[in-house]
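Table S4 entry, V-type proton ATPase subunit a.
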Amino acid sequence: MSRKLRFFKDQISKAGLLSSVHPVVEPDVELEDLEIQLAEHEHELIEMNSNSEKLQQRYNELLEFKMVLQKAGGFLVSSNNHAVAEETELSENVYSNDDYVETSSLLEQEMRHADQSGLRFISGIICKSKALRFERMLFRATRGNMLFNQEPAGEEIMDPLSAEMVEKTVFVVFFSGEQARTKILKICEAFGANSYPVPEDISKQRQITREVLSRLSELETTLDAGVRHRNKALTSIGYHLTQWMSMVRREKAVYDTLNMLNFDVTKKCLVGEGWCPIFAKAQIQEALQQATFDSNSQVGVIFHVMDAFESPPTYFRTNHFTNAYQEIVDAYGVARYQEANPAVYTVITFPFLFAVMFGDWGHGICLLLGALVLIARESRLSTQKLGSFMEMLFGGRYVLLLMSLFSIYCGLIYNEFFSVPFHIFGGSAYKCRDATCSDAHSAGLIKFRDPYPFGVDPSWRGSRSELPFLNSLKMKLSILLGVAQMNLGIILSYFNARFFHDSLDIRYQFVPQMIFLNSLFGYLSLLIIIKWCTGSQADLYHVMIYMFLSPTDDLGENELFWGQRPLQIVLLLLALIAVPWMLFPKPFILKKLHSERFQGRTYGMLGSSEFDLDVEPDSSWQHQEEFNFSEVFVHQMIHSIEFVLGAVSNTASYLRLWALSLAHSELSTVFYEKVLLLAWGYDNIVIRLVGLAVFAFATAFILLMMETLSAFLHALRLHWVEFQNKFYHGDGYKFKPFSFALITEDDN
């Protein structure tokens, strides 16, 4: 039935008709009735196609015959009822144009004796592309004893096999002898040339031409009537095609699912095992009871909850807003059953980290407008078939919305609007050193009031210390955000372990990881905050390097608070203790627990249900594989080394927040100063318009598209690698319930 429906669809598209977008909704017919209907329609269509092909072939033959009669008649000069060649091709066989008339008359004289010498001709039609090779072959086969005349047919003829319009050439071959005639006919057959008999008598030619023309007009009428009838039949099929295809797809999906079920012992019932969410149990039982009632089944449906060895699939209930964030997490790996879902935090942290790299409230407003347009057209766009790029944008419309809102927020903190600062929250805290203020950018500024209330002071813009100040600010912010997110990841690993009642992971993984990370990078974050609060000139690079190289040395001017040196020694010792704490205890404790649990046991658990009466109900969840100490130890060692090295590399990886923010800011400045302001400096409207166009193009394609994509990918990496590897296993599989709504045309 699917094949027949595909055949109908192809026929409708070939005929240039459209299947109805809003099909006629009728009550579903029975599958058996539909099969009979489809078979009848197919038989009718095949018959119509066959008749149409035969008529079209006959029409083409008559059209070719008409052309041969018209063109070949011109080659034949009627003289004493004998055929002679016309002048067209003879010009190639004479030595000079001056002798043309004489040569022609000589040939006519020769032709008058055609009966005695046995001169004959074959006329026909051949594809224009084959004409030259055809002539050469004839020349070789007859050893030059022939005369070949040709002329373009003037009309394109439809090839019945390929259904394409083909240019053809009419030819007439003059030859002598029966043997040459046989050869020429065979060559015509080999080259696909159709030969048609043309009488020598002009009156007979005219009579046959009239007959051919009348039959052509009759065939045209018949063909048109056939096409109309076929289109009418296809249109009536088109009205129901979408509904029929949907019905057949649904039936196939049902049978495909039924194939997964097994017969019970009596061979009268079907038994199926599957997963369902706990909240849907009552709903499923209700649906099954309704189905039993509707089908008048004599056997009631038995719905029984059973234990299973394999881990259940993962299912998160999402809506239009949260679905895109869940997809971002699932692209890395589907959550293991019941482990903490990072998508909950990703909803906020992902767009925020994007905005840290993309902070410009002018660009943020542009993204916001785009997101609002997609959300406003949500109901219309969700029903349309979109291109791959547009589909991706539409799917992430709510991600784009939050990304743009956070970009506006971070842009206000950085005080950048297309790289231009504004005095939005009051006046600057700085003023010019001298009264003229002419050399303020180079001579520097002095502070005269309280700090700027929100974000970066606009007076930093264009000053000598702008870049060192912003670099320092953004770099330190990146480390603070990175350490905070990594701590969140480790805290989530604690909640995972607590949920699964895994005290080993809490004691020998969560605790040492928290100690190691915060002894080093938590301490660095504390130093950054103290330095900001106190205004100290301490060099934090020096402090962190010499904390490892010479922890007992005096800090001198780099001391930020009393008792810093002993605190550093304690933190360093804690970090060193944390590494073996992570590595050694867990594998040995697991080995001890395993040997105690299976002490004295040398037999396996019986799998047969007859002997499982005394086994506790949750035994299937405690299904143990054979314990391999070396494998567990190597796994723990890899995990510990990965965390220790990752703590350093992941913290450094968060510096991409600073790097991309700087790159975005500098690119915006370049386009603003070197394109827009430069063009505005000319007193010429054309140059100004060109400058404005280049600035708009650069902003739209480089900053709003390429930079957005770049910041998106970097934020993605920070979540997948730096954040999720602290707690997320991601080795589960999705719950995919059977649903008619999810069956697409590609599921055949």
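The radius of gyration is 44 Å.
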